[in-house]
Every structure is written in C-alpha cells, then in structure tokens.
Amino acid sequence: MTRRMTAPDFRLAKGKRRLACLTAYDVLTAGILDEAGIDLILVGDSMGNVILGYETTLKVTLGDVVSHAAAVMRARPRALVIADMPYLTFHIRPEETLRNAGRLIQEAGVDGVKLEGGRERLDHVRALVQAEIPVMGHLGLTPQSVLKFGGFRVQGRSEDAAEGLIADARALEEAGCFSLVLEGLPGPLAERLTGAVGIPTIGIGAGAGCDGQILVISDLLGIPASVPKFVRRYADLRGVIGDAARRYIEDVQAGRFPGTEETYSE
Length: 266
Hints:
Elements: H1 7-12, E1 19-23, H2 27-36, E2 40-43, H3 47-50, H4 62-73, E3 80-84, H5 94-108, E4 112-114, H6 122-130, E5 135-140, H7 146-149, H8 159-175, E6 179-183, H9 187-196, E7 201-204, E8 212-215, H10 217-220, H11 237-254
Parallel strand pairs: 1-2, 1-8, 2-3, 3-4, 4-5, 5-6, 6-7, 7-8
C-alpha cells in the first residue's frame, strides 16, 4: 500500500493474505520496520519485560505506553500502529477505559488500542467502538493475567476451555473488534478459532493456522539470551552488539579511538 494502513484495511485482509506484525517502542525501530513493509506495529506492554526490565507487564503505566507510542508515531509509519492498554486502564468502568484510550489516541496519535480479555470486557470494547476507536482483542495467554494463571501457561487445553475461548472470540467480534491476537494456544484450537470469526487472528505461540503472526522485535532480532520456544531468531544482534562494544572498549583502552586523524568542527 502507498497510503497508510487503516483498521478496516487490516480487517479486509482476512482470507486474502497473511499479515506480518511486530512490536516497536522507539522511532528508529519503527522507521526500519515500516521501510521493510510491516503491516502492523504494536506498541506493546511487553516493553515492561524487554525495555523497562520488569518480570511481568503489570508495572507498565499508561504514561509509559503514551511516551513510547508517541515516539513510534514520530517515524510517520505507513503501517497500522496499535497501542496496548496497560493493566488497570480498562478493568474498572467503561468510562475510565474510554478516557485512558483517548489519551493514546490524542496524545500519542496511534490508530487504535489493544486490550486483553474476553466476554468480561465487552462493555469496555463497546464503549471504545462507540467512540470510534478501533479495538484489537487479545485472547489465550493474556500476560496481564499472569497472577491468575500462575505463570505463562498455554491456555485452552480442555474442550470446555476451548469452547469458552471460541465464544469469547465471537463475542468480541460482535462487539466491534477489528482483529484478535491469539497467544499461547494449541495450534489446532487457534486454527479452529480463526475459522469461527470473520476478523483476522494474529498468532503468537499459537501455530500457523492464524491469519497473521506477531513477534516481540527483540526476540526476532536475537537480543535476549533466551527466547520462547516458538520464536524464530532472524538475527543475532546480541552477538553483533557485544562484539562492537568489545572492539570499542579495546580501541579506547589502546588509544586508537579517537584516532589522531580525526577532525572536529564546532
């Protein structure tokens, strides 16, 4: 596309082509991903783990997401940009959810928001859609539910749980979600759920049967020492960055940087 991607464009891609999505949290990364042709950039609360150093996403604040999302938008991406709603920004009253989402739209300038949960979030989703804010749902292993789940565990293993997730997906679609992230689900269930709704499903650790895929950018680039089993590393930036830093240290200690041939201007 030569123009900017919109939520309706994204929704209409279902059944026509697979959608490639990645996270980003800064202007430089967002610009690179956009030049590569990514469909959607998610300013995820995964920043809590990979940027801010938290063990979970629960400590990420609305201010954190607004700041990082605004940085991503300064890249002027063609891609659709969606921002996560952090923990406790959409759990109390729909009016409060709308106010918090409004900050992400007005202050950061994103194209829509993502929130976790199923039928228990329908009033919140409807309030956002009524206010003309595009909403992406998120089902399965929802990281903000880590305390309830007792860890990051695959969801939907029993038939009752699977049926519940399918009912959640259909209800979110009916409430107005333009897409769903499916995380940490058995592949056959994710494929079954994908066929049960008319909106795109974006998988992460949910097999190949979804309408698209998303990864955390640092995992894709091989920056962490370890990554989830479902991740495919497309680079080894941990090695590249470490090697560059070591060569820099050696040059500084040996007096090779900056060299005497260097010139400086005021």
